[in-house]
UniProtKB/TrEMBL annotation:
Domain 4Fe-4S ferredoxin-type: 118-147, 151-180
Source organism of this protein record: marine sediment metagenome
InterPro entries: 4Fe4S_Fe-S-bd, 4Fe4S_Fe_S_CS
Gene Ontology MF, one: 4 iron, 4 sulfur cluster binding
Name of the molecule in the record: 4Fe-4S ferredoxin-type domain-containing protein
């Protein structure tokens, strides 16, 4: 609920706000009300496409998890802090910047990035280069690379989380999941059925 500012006949200002703790609207009386300038995030599409980090409905970058990973983005190696995240006080921005720098230092000190145990793979002989997989990948782990005269899906193993969204959307079944091919899944189902019946 949006706060409302009003002025009585005597010139005294009043701000009506909803208090979620009390579960009711309260009115604060004051001699002066100073309104802060609204902050609008930069909508530079160049950065949005390059980073591939999702934004909130307000246009600020989204963190991976509010409580568990407050400075991590959905893309490994990209950390969010300060006004890129949302408007916040200076001390909170500094604390977030220190956390983001620490996370980046840990990643850089290793010198390498471990790939997930299960990642997607693309069969270039089947791939038609339609780009559906690239569009739906939530981690921007697929890029359309030029191969001879056609474009083909190229999986970036370091960014892939093995979620399987690309394999689900591929209309030509050119993408498969490591250890989760159709044959392996059918074998698992059959083995589970054999265990259930006791044979």
């Amino acid at each position: 609920r949006m706060p409302e500012v009003s002025e009585d006949e005597g010139g005294l200002m009043g701000v009506t706000v909803y208090d979620p703790t009390l579960g009711a609207e309260i009115e604060i009386r004051s001699d002066l009300v100073a309104l802060s300038t609204a902050l609008v995030p930069d909508r530079d599409e160049k950065w949005e496409k390059a980073l591939a980090v999702p934004r909130s409905s307000d246009g600020f970058f989204l963190e991976a998890h509010v409580q568990l990973n407050p400075v991590d983005s959905y893309v490994d190696g990209i950390y969010i802090c300060g006004m890129a995240h949302f408007p916040k006080p200076l001390d909170e921005s500094i604390a977030q910047a220190k956390a983001a720098a620490s996370k980046a230092a840990i990643l850089l000190s290793k010198g390498y990035k471990k790939a997930e145990p299960i990642v997607s793979s693309s069969d270039e002989d089947i791939c038609t280069g339609c780009g559906i997989c690239e569009h739906f990948c939530p981690y921007s782990a697929i890029k359309m690379a030029k191969r001879e005269k056609k474009k083909k899906a190229e999986i970036i193993s370091a960014a892939c989380k093995g979620c399987g969204v690309c394999a689900t959307y591929c209309p030509f079944k050119a993408i498969s999941m490591g250890r989760f091919t159709d044959e392996q899944i059918i074998a698992q189902i059959e083995a589970f059925g054999a265990c259930e019946t006791g044979s």
